[in-house]
Write a structure and sequence with these properties.
By secondary structure, the protein is of the alpha/beta class.
């Protein structure tokens, strides 16, 4: 029996070492060097190629290498009877809190403008709103969205949250479902997307959504690139519907050299680094779920295929 890692765009030696620190007796292999496909019973994946996961006839379960699972749910070659789980860690939450707070403060205090002014040897002050005057909307109030919203609220920002089902969070105005989506947007100046990617949320950051934000407005996308309709963002920026965007995720990664986002000074780009899984922190979760899968037990952090998270 073996556990395999399938992540062609990641260096995986640290992952293998972390697993062996938890249980040195486990047989751990890294795709594509798999000795015997029939021995594979558990896979840990990130952006796996097509026609990989259907090569293992005894595969019982698959785990995402991170918090997102859309790369697994969208894999038509993953057998329907294979259970899916994710990893959850405090550092993923902390990193996301840091990233979103950093982008919010950079937008609020015009730091990008000042960095560019320094390059041009310009000395010019810009006005900025107080935290208490800035309305931030968090789309998605799950394991990442809720703590992000709470941190911003504790620092004095006006925080609204929107989710699929009703949530109650102290000091945060919450909205739920499509019926309350417009009301949520109309109270938002900086829109932060932390939604899971599902059929319902694919393309949710479209022109209709952007037009309903308070002016001036920004968006921050740290969820999945497919949430955003790229051409709608370009149009909204070029017509002053919104002021700017801070993007860490893209529908195609790495972002192609000729993509229009590169040429827009009001789009900030980071290379999908908002929250990165640390092998040493989640290796015990992976080993635990591997053993649960072998025993026929319910997985920790198991994903509902129908809901998409």
């Amino acid at each position: 029996m073996s556990l395999i890692f399938v992540a062609p765009d990641r260096s995986l030696s640290a992952w293998k070492d972390a697993i062996h620190k938890v249980d040195p007796n486990l047989d751990v292999e890294i795709w594509p060097q798999i000795d015997n496909p029939k021995r594979v019973q558990f896979a840990v994946c990130w952006n796996q190629p097509k026609h990989v996961l259907d090569n293992y006839p005894n595969l019982k379960a698959v785990s995402s290498l991170g918090a997102g699972v859309d790369h697994l749910l969208e894999d038509d070659f993953l057998p329907a009877d294979v259970n899916i789980c994710r990893v959850v860690s405090s550092s993923l939450i902390q990193q996301m809190k840091e990233y979103v707070l950093g982008t919010v403060i950079s937008i609020q205090r015009n730091f990008v403008h000042y960095i560019r002014q320094k390059d041009q040897q310009q000395w010019q002050a810009h006005t900025h709103p107080l935290a208490s005057d800035l309305a931030i909307g968090i789309m998605g109030l799950g394991k990442l969205g809720k703590p992000v919203a709470q941190q911003l609220s504790e620092l004095g920002y006006q925080v609204n949250g929107w989710s699929r089902s009703p949530k109650t969070i102290e000091n945060i105005s919450t909205f739920a479902g499509r019926d309350e989506f417009s009301a949520f947007l109309q109270k938002t100046q900086i829109l932060v997307c932390l939604l899971p990617l599902t059929d319902e949320t694919n393309g949710i950051l479209d022109l209709e959504t952007l037009k309903q934000l308070q002016s001036p407005s920004w968006i921050i996308n740290v969820a999945r690139g497919e949430h955003l309709v790229d051409e709608d963002l370009i149009y909204a920026l070029d017509t002053d519907i919104i002021k700017g965007a801070w993007l860490d995720v893209f529908s195609e990664e790495p972002l192609p050299d000729r993509h229009a986002f590169w040429n827009r000074s009001n789009i900030m780009i980071t290379p999908h680094i908002a929250s990165i899984t640390q092998p040493s922190e989640v290796a015990d979760q992976i080993v635990e779920n591997y053993k649960r899968a072998l025993s026929g037990m319910e997985l920790n952090y198991e994903v509902d295929r129908q809901k998409g998270y």
